[in-house]
Amino acid sequence: MKYKLNGPRKDKVKNQRSLKVRLLNQRGARCERCRYNKREILQAHHKDRNTNNNELENLELICPNCHAEEHYLENSWLNDSRYNGGVLRMVRN
Ligand SMILES: [Zn+2]
Ligand SMILES: [Zn+2]
What we know:
This protein has 4 helices and 2 strands; from the N terminus they run αββααα. It has 93 residues and is mostly helical. One zinc ion binds at residues 45-46, 67, 70-71.
C-alpha cells in the first residue's frame, strides 16, 4: 500500500528543496568541495546514499559538477574493472 509511484514523488522534491534551503542558511551559498557559489544550482548530497537520512552530518551542499563526479565515479565501470580485471576481459572479447 505504501509503494505508490505517483503520490510521494512530489513530497520528495519538496523535501529536497527545503533541505537545500536549510543547508544554504547554515553553511552559506557555496559548494563545500569547490566553493562554486551559484546558490540556485547547488544540491544536497546524502553521504550515505540514503535520501531518507536527513541528518545534517549526512548532508553535503555541493554543486552539480561535484555531485555528478561523486556518483559517477562510484558507478563507473572503470571503477569495477580495477578490481575484477574487466578491462582485460573486454579487450580480449
Ligand atoms: Zn563543487
Ligand atoms: Zn548525492
